[in-house]
């Protein structure tokens, strides 16, 4: 049985919470194994968006519902706050399993706004991961 723990924010990043999934080891004296993790924080512009970052499940523990358990904990965080309106995350565009999970949970892909091609090229030069990542969002009301 997987256990999800919240690691409290530290002094240098008080707005950031790390969620960690642990799997019990067979030997009692062994420390539980960290098998999945993600980081969440409130976006600073409005404070009304919770951003989920770096959700990752160790390869040998995938397809066991652990990512869903982390998302359940994200939902609990949202419900504890009365000011949040949306939850956002990014996912690699090639990760069909993750995209299917997020869509099943109510996330929708954000449409890219039409705009100046030069601006887009500059943005991609600054952050090349945007070429392979998809941004998704969900209204808190759906949780």
Automatic annotation (TrEMBL):
<keyword id="KW-0808">Transferase</keyword>
<protein>
    <submittedName>
        <fullName>Unnamed protein product</fullName>
    </submittedName>
</protein>
<dbReference type="Pfam" id="PF00583">
    <property type="entry name" value="Acetyltransf_1"/>
</dbReference>
<dbReference type="GO" id="GO:0016747">
    <property type="term" value="F:acyltransferase activity, transferring groups other than amino-acyl groups"/>
</dbReference>
<keyword id="KW-0012">Acyltransferase</keyword>
<dbReference type="InterPro" id="IPR051556">
    <property type="entry name" value="N-term/lysine_N-AcTrnsfr"/>
</dbReference>
<dbReference type="InterPro" id="IPR000182">
    <property type="entry name" value="GNAT_dom"/>
</dbReference>
<dbReference type="InterPro" id="IPR016181">
    <property type="entry name" value="Acyl_CoA_acyltransferase"/>
</dbReference>
<feature type="domain" description="N-acetyltransferase">
    <location>
        <begin position="31"/>
        <end position="123"/>
    </location>
</feature>
């Amino acid at each position: 049985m997987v256990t999800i723990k919240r690691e409290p924010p530290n002094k240098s990043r008080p707005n950031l919470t790390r969620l960690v999934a642990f799997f019990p080891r067979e030997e009692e004296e062994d420390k539980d194994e960290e098998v999945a993790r993600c980081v969440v924080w409130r976006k600073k512009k409005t404070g009304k968006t919770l951003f989920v970052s770096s959700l990752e499940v160790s390869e040998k523990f995938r397809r066991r519902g652990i990512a869903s358990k982390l998302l359940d904990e994200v939902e609990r965080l949202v419900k504890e706050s009365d000011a949040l309106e949306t939850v956002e995350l990014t996912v690699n565009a090639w990760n069909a399993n993750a995209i299917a999970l997020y869509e099943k949970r109510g996330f929708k892909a954000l449409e890219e706004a039409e705009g100046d091609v030069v601006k887009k090229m500059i943005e991609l030069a600054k952050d090349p991961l945007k070429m392979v990542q998809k941004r998704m969002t969900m209204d808190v009301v759906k949780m």
